[in-house]
Amino acid sequence: MNDERFIRRCFELARLGAGAVSPNPLVGAVLVHADRIIGEGWHQRWGEAHAEVRCIASVSPENQALIPYSTLYCNLEPCSHFGKTPPCCDLILRQKIRRVVVANMDPNPLVAGKGLDALRRAGVEVLDGILEAEGYWLNRAFFTWITQQRPYVVLKWAQSSDGFLGKTGERTPISGAETLRLVHRWRTHCDAILVGARTAELDNPRLDTRFFPGKNPLRVVFDTQGKIPASHHLLDDSIETWVFGKPVMKGDFRNTKFIPVEGSVEVPTLLEALKIANKAILLVEGGAHVLQQFVDSGHWDEIRVLENRQHLSNGIAAPKIPENAVLKQDFRCGADWVRIFAR
Ligand code: AOF
Ligand code: ZN
Fold it and tell me: Do residue 200 and residue 328 come from a single domain?
C-alpha cells in the first residue's frame, strides 16, 4: 500500500536524527503529490525545526503550487503547541494541505491528539495508525520518556558462545571490529553510558565514539571505593563525565563531576539524576555486577547481547536473559551474533 510505503520513508528520514534530537522524538515527513515525493524533511537537532517544517521548506519553487493538492506523511502526529518551535499544525493549515497520514499519536500531553483534532476540525482528511507498531519501536525511548518520565535503559554485553563475559581479572576482547563499530554507533545514539568500577579499573575504557561519527554521550562510572587510577581514560576530563562515589579529586576538571555517595549507588538514584539532566537514553555497558543490578531490579527496557564463537570454559558468567524478555532482532555482525531483546 502506498500509505505504508511513504510512512516507511518517514521512518528512514526520522532515523537520520538519531543521536541529535533526544529527548525529542525521531520524526520524518514526506510530501507526496500524485505518488511522487515533492518534499522531504526530518527533525535534525533538538530545539530546531520540526520535520514538517523542513519537509515543506524543501519543496522546489516549481512544485510549490502542488502543496495544497499533496498528502503530508509524518511518523508522528504534527504538534499543536508552541514549544521551542511554533505548531506544525498551523503550518499545515496555512499551506492548505488537505490530507495528512501519520503512524503514531504524540503522547506528549501538550499535543496528545490535539494536533490531529485541529486538522480534522479544519476539514483535513486525517489517517492515523499506519505502521503504528514500527513507529512505536522507532521512538521507544521517546514514548518511555514521556509516559514514564524516566530514561530508557539499554543493557549491553558481549559474551562467549558458552556464556562468559570474560576471564576473571583480565580484559578479554570478545567481539570483532565490525561489532565494535556497531557499539560505537549505539553509543552515538544514546545520551549516557554507564560502567561499574571494576570494568573501569580493569579495562580502562574510553567510552567514546571514535569508531563512528556522532556525538560523545555523557560517561557515568560508579566508583564507590575510589579505585580508578587518575591516569585512566575515564578521568581524562576529555568528555562530560560523572563519577559516582569517588571523593572529589584534586585537579582542573571542567567536564568531570564527582558525585559523592555513601555505600553503593542505587539504580533509581542514577535514573533520577539522568532525568534531571535531560538524558533520556542510558546504555549500560557492564560489568557483570552492574548489569546484574539492573536485571535484578527490573530497571531495563532493552538488552543487546553480542555473542561470538569463542569458548572460554570459565570466567565471569554473563547475566541470564530475564524470562519476560522478547527477542526483537537477531542478526550477524562480522563474525559475531547480535540479539536484541525488549519487554
Ligand atoms: C512534530 N514534529 O518533528 C517533532 C515533534 O520544543 P519543541 O518545539 O521542539 O517541541 C518538542 C515536542 O514536539 C516533543 O516533545 C514532541 O511532542 C513534539 N515533537 N512534533 O510535529 C517533529 N520533533
Ligand atoms: Zn511540530
Answer: yes
Residue 144 lies in a domain: no
Cell numbers that stand for 134 in this block: 514500527
* Ligand 1 pocket, residue 84 CB under 6 Å: yes
> Is residue 100 lining ligand 1, measured as CB closer than 6 Å?
no
Which atom of ligand 1 is least distant from the CA of 27? 3
Q: Which residues surround ligand 2, an ion (CB under 5 A)?
A: 50, 79, 88
Dihedral sign of CA atoms 176, 284, 166, 332 in order: negative
26 CA closest ligand 1 atom index: 23
* Residue 112 sits in the same domain as residue 170: no
The Cβ-side half-sphere exposure at 204, using a 13 Å CA radius, reads 7
Say whether both 315 and 335 belong to one domain.
Answer: yes
Mark whether 52 is an active-site residue: yes
Among the bound ligands, the one closest to the CA of 108: 1
Range of the domain at 19: 2-139
d(CA 50, CA 140): 19
Strand arrangement of the beta sheet that strand 36-42 belongs to: 36-42, 28-33, 71-76, 99-104, 125-127
- Residue 46 Cα to ligand 2 midpoint, Å, equals 12
Q: Which atom of ligand 1 is nearest to the CA of 46?
A: 9
- Catalytic: which of 4, 12, 40, 52? 52
Among the candidates 104, 139, 174, a domain finishes at 139
Q: Does the C-beta of 88 come closer than 6 Å to ligand 1?
A: yes
Residue-by-residue pLDDT tens, the chain, 343 positions = 699 999 999 999 999 999 999 999 999 999 999 999 999 999 999 999 999 999 999 999 999 999 999 999 999 999 999 988 899 999 999 999 999 999 999 999 999 999 999 999 999 999 999 999 999 999 999 999 999 999 999 999 999 998 898 888 777 677 788 999 999 999 999 999 999 998 899 889 999 999 999 999 999 999 988 889 989 999 999 999 999 987 777 788 999 999 988 888 999 999 999 999 999 999 999 889 999 999 999 999 999 999 988 888 888 889 999 999 999 999 999 999 999 999 9
Cβ(221)–Cβ(194) below 8 Å: yes
Q: Could you tell me the pTM of the whole model?
A: 0.94
Q: Which of 139, 163, 196 is the last residue of a domain?
A: 139
